[in-house]
Design brief:
By secondary structure, the chain is α/β, with parallel strands linked by helices. The protein contains nine helices and five strands, in the order βαβαααβαβαααβα. 58% of the residues lie in helices and 12% in strands. The structure holds BIS(adenosine)-5'-tetraphosphate (B4P).
Length: 196
């Protein structure tokens, strides 16, 4: 079983690479951002609760986020056999700690955290470009995009040290073509899978 975390600032390409990685390694892909957007679109009680956070570029509270993650895993227990690809989770230290407890208890710990390093201005450019067609309220306004980046630096980036101490953190250059970055990621995953 291979549990992988894709890490990096908003717009660093986590979602883009996740689509390819889940195919190559037959992993179950969980994007907390996609789940929240699905709930908002469906106007569910959860969607109503989280919409304001996404609109402002802020993080959804940890208790809500972990419940969503645990439910997604339980509802798809038949699909997670080869492992899970986490995209956009964890984003805070409490999220990482609760995740570690959950998976360590089941003897299926996170194996590797792959971080995509991308320059701030490149990230802003990518997200605003996507905003022209994505319909995402958090992609259109440069002030909100920069707020997301700041939230990442304040609340999510400290996790790099948390995983470095566990010897699981691997930072990669997230700039270049989508194919080049995919190759960089798969080289690292293949090393872990082969025990090298
Ligand atoms: P997410 O859905 O995770 O959004 P993201 O950070 O923008 O996505 P990503 O890094 O995957 O970028 P992508 O590949 O799409 O989160 C949205 C919101 O949900 C958060 O702000 C928060 O409110 C909430 N949320 C989610 N998870 C949470 C959690 N755990 N706790 C609390 N709140 C949470 O790439 C972006 C763009 O770049 C695309 O247009 C893509 O085409 C382009 N691109 C990708 N690779 C490229 C490349 N190599 N070169 C050029 N362009 C590239």
């Amino acid at each position: 079983m291979l549990n992988l975390v894709l890490f990096g600032p908003p717009g660093s390409g986590k979602g883009t690479q996740a689509v390819r990685l889940k195919e190559k390694y037959s992993l179950f892909h969980i994007s907390t951002g996609d789940i929240f957007r699905r709930e908002i679109k469906g106007k569910t009680p959860l969607g109503m609760e989280v919409a304001a956070y996404l609109d402002k570029g802020q993080l959804v509270p940890d208790e809500v986020t972990f419940k969503v993650l645990a439910a997604e895993i339980q509802n798809n227990a038949d699909k997670t056999g080869n492992g899970i690809l986490f995209d956009g989770y964890p984003r805070t230290l409490p999220q990482a700690e609760i995740m570690d407890r959950y998976f360590n208890e089941r003897n299926t710990p996170v194996n590797l955290v792959l971080a995509l390093d991308v320059d701030d201005e490149e990230v802003v450019k990518r997200i605003l470009h996507r905003g022209k067609s994505s319909g995402r309220s958090d992609d259109n306004d440069e002030t909100i995009v920069r707020e997301r980046l700041q939230v990442y630096k304040n609340q999510t980036l400290p996790l790099a040290e948390y995983y470095r101490k566990q010897g699981k953190y691997m930072a990669l250059n997230g700039e270049g073509s989508v194919d080049e970055i995919f190759l960089r990621l798969t080289e690292q995953i293949d090393k872990i899978s082969s025990g090298a």
